[in-house]
């Protein structure tokens, strides 16, 4: 999970971390969060939430008011199997910006590059 730095102009967003670890950036503040963490991301503040390490991340997402789930439906691609996509797959940022604007979201950065997997 690696999202770009972005701003919601009409929605507050929050996450409750169920499993795994994420790095959450809100404005100039950056925190590493694990299970049980609640992350509040107010509208009009640049923010980003990204997985840390190779562990699966599961979170609940909240949006106030609702509606941002439409962006996730349109931007996402349904998985054909229960296997993570290769980390080399990069989103089409022009298409991502177009869809984001439809939901009053401004993308101001790219998703971070994932480091190569460590060999055991």
Question: Which topology does CATH recognise?
Answer: Jelly Rolls
How many β-strand stretches?
Answer: 8
Assign the CATH superfamily.
Jelly Rolls
Strands ordered across the widest β-sheet: 5-2-7
CATH class equals Mainly Beta
Describe the SSE topology.
Layout: E1 6-8, E2 12-19, E3 22-26, E4 29-33, E5 38-41, E6 47-51, E7 58-64, H1 69-75, H2 93-102, E8 105-107
Antiparallel strand pairs: 1-8, 2-5, 2-7, 3-4, 3-6
Structure characteristics:
single chain, 120 residues, alpha+beta, Jelly Rolls, 3-stranded antiparallel beta sheet, 2 helices, 8 strands, 14% helix, globular, disordered C terminus
How do you describe this structure in short?
It contains two helices and eight strands; from the N terminus they run E-E-E-E-E-E-E-H-H-E.
């Amino acid at each position: 999970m690696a999202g770009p730095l972005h701003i919601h102009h009409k929605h507050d967003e929050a996450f409750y971390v169920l499993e795994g670890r994420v790095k959450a950036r809100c404005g100039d503040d950056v925190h590493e969060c694990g299970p049980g963490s609640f992350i509040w991301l107010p509208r009009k503040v640049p923010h980003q939430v990204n997985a840390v390490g190779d562990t699966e991340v599961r979170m609940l997402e909240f949006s106030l008011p609702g509606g941002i789930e439409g962006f996730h439906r349109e931007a996402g691609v349904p998985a054909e199997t229960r296997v993570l996509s290769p980390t080399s797959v990069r989103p089409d940022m022009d298409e991502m910006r177009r869809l984001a604007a439809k939901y009053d979201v401004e993308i101001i950065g790219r998703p971070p590059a994932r480091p190569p997997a460590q060999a055991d």
